[in-house]
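Ops channel
N.P.: pipeline sanity check, posting one input/output pair.
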């Protein structure tokens, strides 16, 4: 139970956040620049309060000070505009909406063909996040929540995202989490073992996992690339280990590659999709 003191603290934090977000709303195409005193007047908030809020927003990259000439007068760092962090967030939201819309019809096709759950995953802040799903129509099926986060080292599709990052990025992410959590009996927590799986995924074009994020489950993940040739997302077919077997993973890979190739091209990937000519058997 939250104490009254803690509840009051949460209420104050919520009000502060609300005020900061209200300030961001003043920045529009018609009014892209604001002085501290003017935004204080427009928001009807004390100048000291606005200063504190704007300082925090600036530190987090949501706004930034600008210097420019206006009507022959040099304005030196007295104006604010929206910051680059909002550009990053906007791009991420735009990319998510685009790829979800593109992928969903193909995900439904995979679900109908294999009868298993199909998931779409992207990377966000060094984690995998599930942004779309088509559930299996089996009476007993695997359930995944949209918005769920998972470490990049565990599970077929998260590891697919990890595998197609540059080597230095993989090392940075693995070293970031020194003591990795073991989610289920087969979760790999040793960096050398994870790197072996990364190489395996790159070599054969898909990743397979069993009992890594949840006991008794299994999945197959394949990569989607963007116009820069970088990993954009991954699609996975997931179910129980009794049905999504290593042998089934071999069968699933080719139609999954075909869909990932189509989606990669729609995202602007101009190189030949690197997988699909043949399937390397598990363990080879």
């Amino acid at each position: 139970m939250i104490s009254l003191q803690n509840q009051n603290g949460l209420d104050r934090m919520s009000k502060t956040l609300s005020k900061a977000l209200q300030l961001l709303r003043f920045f529009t195409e018609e009014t892209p620049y604001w002085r501290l005193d003017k935004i204080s007047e427009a928001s009807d908030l004390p100048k000291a309060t606005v200063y504190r809020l704007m300082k925090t927003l600036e530190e987090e990259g949501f706004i930034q000070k600008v210097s420019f000439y206006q009507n022959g007068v040099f304005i030196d760092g007295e104006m604010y505009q929206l910051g680059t962090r909002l550009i990053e967030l906007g791009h991420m939201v735009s990319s998510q909406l685009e790829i979800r819309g593109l992928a969903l019809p193909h995900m439904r096709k995979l679900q109908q063909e294999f009868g298993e759950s199909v998931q779409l995953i992207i990377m966000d802040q060094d984690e995998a996040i599930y942004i779309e799903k088509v559930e299996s129509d089996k009476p007993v099926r695997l359930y995944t929540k949209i918005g769920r986060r998972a470490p990049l080292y565990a599970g077929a599709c998260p590891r697919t995202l990890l595998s197609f990052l540059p080597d230095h990025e993989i090392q940075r992410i693995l070293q970031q989490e020194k003591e990795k959590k073991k989610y289920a009996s087969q979760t790999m927590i040793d960096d050398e073992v994870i790197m072996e799986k990364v190489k395996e995924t790159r070599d054969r074009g898909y990743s397979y996992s069993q009992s890594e994020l949840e006991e008794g489950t299994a999945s197959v993940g394949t990569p989607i690339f963007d116009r820069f040739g970088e990993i954009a997302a991954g699609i996975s077919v997931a179910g129980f280990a009794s049905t999504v077997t290593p042998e089934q993973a071999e069968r699933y890979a080719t139609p999954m590659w075909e869909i990932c190739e189509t989606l990669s091209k729609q995202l602007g990937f101009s190189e030949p999709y690197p997988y699909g000519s043949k399937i390397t058997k598990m363990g080879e």
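N.P.: looks fine end to end. Confidence is low (pLDDT under 50) at residues 278-284.
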